Amino acid sequence: MAExxxxxxxxxxxxxxxxxxxxxxxxxxxxxxxxxxTNAYGCFSSGHKFCREVCPVMxxxxxxxxxxxxxxxxxxxxxxxxxxxxxxxxxYVHCTQCGACELRCPNTLFTGDFYRHRTRTVDVVKAMRxxxxxxxxxxxxxxxxNERLAERHNEPVLGDVPVSQEHVAxxxxxxxIPVGGETILFVDCEAAFYRTSYARAFAQLLQKAGVxxxxxxxxxxxxxPAAEMGYVDLARRHADHNVAxxxxxxxxxxxxxxxxxxxxxxxxxPRYYGDDYEFEIVLGVELVNDLVTDGRxxxxxxxxxxVTYHDPCRLNKRKGVHAAPRxxxxxxxxxxxxxxDHVTQWSYCSGGGGGLPVEKPEITEEISRRRVARAxxxxxxxxxxxxxxxxxxxxxxxxxxxxxxxxxxLFELVARSAGIEVGxxxxxxQEARS
Amino acid sequence: MSVAFKSAxxxxxxxxxxxxxxxxxxxxxxxxxxxxxxxxxxxFPVHRWAxxxxxxxxxxxxxxxxxxxxxxxxxxxxxxxxxxxxxGLSDGAVPLRGGILVDVKLMNEIxxxxxxxxxxxxxxxxxxxxxxxELKRHGVFYPDDPASYPCSLVGGRIGTGGWSLIGSRFxxxxxxxxxxxxVLPTGEIVEIAEGGGRKLRKSSTGxxxxxxxxxxxxxxxxxxxxxxxxxxxxxxxxxxxxxxxDYMKAYETTGVLAKSGLATLAGVVLFDxxxxxxxxxxxxxxxxxxxxxxxxxxVAMYGSRVEVEPASKRVMQLGRSLGGKYLGDExxxxxxxxxxxxxxxxxxxxxxxxxxxxxxxxxxxxALNYSVLPQVREEWHAIVARYRERYGIFDxxxxxxxxxxxxxxxxxxxxxxxxxxxxxxLDDENWAGWVACKREISEVTLKYxxxxxxxxxxxxxxDAELVPAEMGSSWEVVKRIKRALDPNNIxxxxxxxxxxxYASGNGSAP
Lengths: 434, 510
Fold this sequence. Notes:
- The complex is a heterodimer of chains A (434) and B (510).
- Chain A has 434 residues and is mainly alpha-helical.
- Chain A is 50% helix and 6% strand.
- Chain A has a 4-stranded parallel beta sheet with strand order 5-4-6-7, with helices on both faces. In chain A, strands 1-2-3 form a 3-stranded parallel beta sheet.
- Chain B contains 16 helices and 18 strands.
- In chain B, α9 packs antiparallel against α11 and α13 (373-391) runs antiparallel to α14 (428-447).
- The chains are: A mainly alpha (434), B alpha+beta (510).
- At the A-B interface, α1, α2, α4 and α7 of A face α2 of B.
C-alpha cells in the first residue's frame, strides 16, 4: 500500500520525511490534540453543519475542507493517526475568524451554557496556525508579513505602504494630541498608515467632546494579527512592549476604536497576563455613542445620504456589539438608514480579517464583492462600516462595481455631521496623492 | 501521511480528471480532501475511517464536467460517489469502495426564477435556506424543510428522497421537484420529468421516471440541475403544543388531529416519554414540564389568514379533546421556530451511570402505519435498552412519530428512535453491536408491515441487507433497472444490497 501511495505521489503539503515534526517525535502535535480533543469531538459528534452556509469563506469556495466541521474533524483524524499537521495546514488558511460558525452551532445555541461547553472555532484555527508555525508548516505570505512586522513593529499593512515607527503618529498631524496620560488612544496600524481619515475622525470627535487622551510614546502593533496567523511569540513581544509603554506613562484606560485591537486587548492580552492586567479597555464606537447620547457631541450637520450598515464581524459576531453603531447612525440628521438586522449579517463579512487577504486575496476580494452587491440591492449610495480592516476590501469592491458604491467609516460620517473637517486620507498616502 | 487508494485511481486517472476539470483547486487527491469527504453526521466507525475514504474528490461546475468524469469512471470501472451537503443521516454519500467522489457544492447557481409558471431552476449544490433568502423578495418559497434545512443541499435531498417537516401541507422533496437533469452511470446527460415538459407537474405520457431518480441514494446517477416548485409564501404560521399524562391519550389525539381534514395542516408530531426526558436534561433545550407530562403532541399549520385562523380554533379544540393541556404560546411558537436546532445535541449523552458524555446522534427512521405505533414503540425501546445495558455506549434519546403522507397525513408516520452513540469508544465489537441493534429495529419495522426508512435511506449496514426482504417480489425489477442503467456497477457501489444485481454479487461487472 505504501508503495502504491508513493507511486502516485499524494500531495502531503511538504511534510518532512518521517512525519510533521522536524524533531521527529510528534510532541507538539500530540499536545495540540490533547488540548483540543474535547472541542473537536463536540463538533464531530454533533455533525449538524449549520455553520457552513453562514461561513463567508465557504460561501465562496464551497470546499468542504474550508468548513468549521473540517477544522474540528481534522483534529479527530489526527487523534486517530490519520493525518498530520502538514496534511491539513492549507485548510486552516481559509478562515477570517469572524465567529459566525460559533454563533450558529447548535451546541452553543442550546446547551452550551448548561454544560459549560463552547464551540471555539476561532481559537481552534489560531491554535492550529500556531502549530503550523511551530512545526515548519508556515504559509509563504504570512511568513513574510510577520518577518516585516518583527523588523518594523507595525503592521506592514497590505501592499507597499511604507511603515515605520517614525511615521506611526503622522496621521495626527495638526491635532495637538499629547503623549501619555491616564487615557491612551490606540490607533490601529491600518488606520495609522492607510485610512488615516478614520483615526482623525475618531480623535477629533473625542476632542470635540472634551475627552482627555494621549498617544503612546512608542506604539507597536497590537500583535493581534500575528496571533491570528499563528505567530504567538511575535504577538506576545508586541503585547509586552505596548503594556510596558502604557505603564510607563501611568495609563489606566485604553481606548480602542478598531474592533481588531479591541479583541486583542480584551481576549489575547488578558490571556497573556491573567490578573496582572489592570487596564480598562474602552470600545470606540460605544464611547462615541455615549458622547452623542449625553449631548457632548452635537450632530448638527445633515448628511444627505442613503446608507446601509455593515456589521464588522469582530463587533457583531465576536463581541455582540450591534446596537451602538445603529443608534449612532439613527442620530445623524438627514441620513436615510436602510438596516439589515445583525443576525442576517452573521453570514456577511468583508473577508478582511484573520490574515485572509494576506494569503488568499482573491477570496477576500470575492467576499467583499458579494457584500457590496448585497448593499446595492437595497438601493443605497453608501455602505457604512465601523472597522478599517473591512473598509479596504469593501472600498475596492465598491469602486469596482458596475455602479460604484461609496464606502465610508462610521466615525468619518459622524464627524462630518458634527461639523468636523476630518482631513487625512481613505487610501494609502501615495494613492491619495495621485 | 499516506492512505492508499482503494480503487483503480492512479496518477494517470488524476491527469485525465485534470484534463476534464482544468482547475487545480477542483481536482483534489490530497489526503485532507479525502478525509473530509468520508463521513456524514450519521454514526461513523471512526476507528475504521480510512476504509471509507474516496481516492480523489472533484468539484465540477457543469453537467458536462460531471458527464466526462462519469464516462471516465465507467470506462475504467472506478466507483463514483455523489456528494452534496454530506449532511445525510444514512450513508448515501459515504464511499464504500474508494473511487471518485463528485462533490457538487460549487454547482449552486440559481439558473432561472419563473414567476409566471412558478418554478425555480437551480444547481444541486444550493441550500434551501439560501435559496429561500433569494426567493423571499418575490413572495414565494421552496417548501422543502428538513431538520437540516440550514445546511443540506438540493442535490442531496433529491438523492435521498428527503422528507420535510411541513410535508403534510406542502409535500416532500419528490413532490416539489418538477424535473431534473441527471448524468447517468454511463455518462449521458438526460432530462427527467413526469413526462417531457420541464415545468409540468403531471403527465401520463410514459413511465414516470422522476420518481425513479428521487431517493436512489446516488446509485442511479447524479442530479446536475433541478426545476423546483414555487409556492406562495404563507401569510400565517401557527403552532400548538399539547401535554399529556398518558402516551395513549397523546397517540389518540395525534390520530384525531391527523384525520381532521384541515388542509392547512403541515404536520402533527407525537413525542414520547423518553424524548421528553431527554429534552428535560437541561433547562434550556426545553422548558421543563412537570413529571406528570408523559407525552407531547405538536401541531403546525401554514396558509393564508382566512384559512389558518378558523382552523387553529378547531386544532385547539381537538388538541384538548382527550385531556391534552395546551403548553402556551411561548413554548409552542418558540419550540416550533427552533425545530431545526433542538432535538439532538451530543452534550446530552449519558452513560449507563448517568454521567454526561458526548455522544453522536443516530436517528433510526421507519415509515409505519398509525395502527402499529404503540406496539413498535415498546419493542424499539426494549431493543435499545438491551444493547445499552450490554455495551454501555448507547443511550435512548426517545422517539417521535410524525405525519408522513404528503398532503394526506392521516394514516402513516415517519417514526424515529434517536440513539446516542459514544463514538469515541467505538471499536470493532461495539460497532458490530450497533449494527446488530439497528438490524433488530428494522426487523421490527418489517414485522409490522413498515418500511425500514421513511427518509434517511437504507444504505447503512444493518439496513442495507434488509432491502431485498422489504422489496420482496419487486426486488427483481429493482435489480434489472440497476443493471440496465449501471452496467458496470460504478455508481455508489455497495449500497442497498444492489451488488446482487450483478452476477458475481460483489460489485464487479457481470
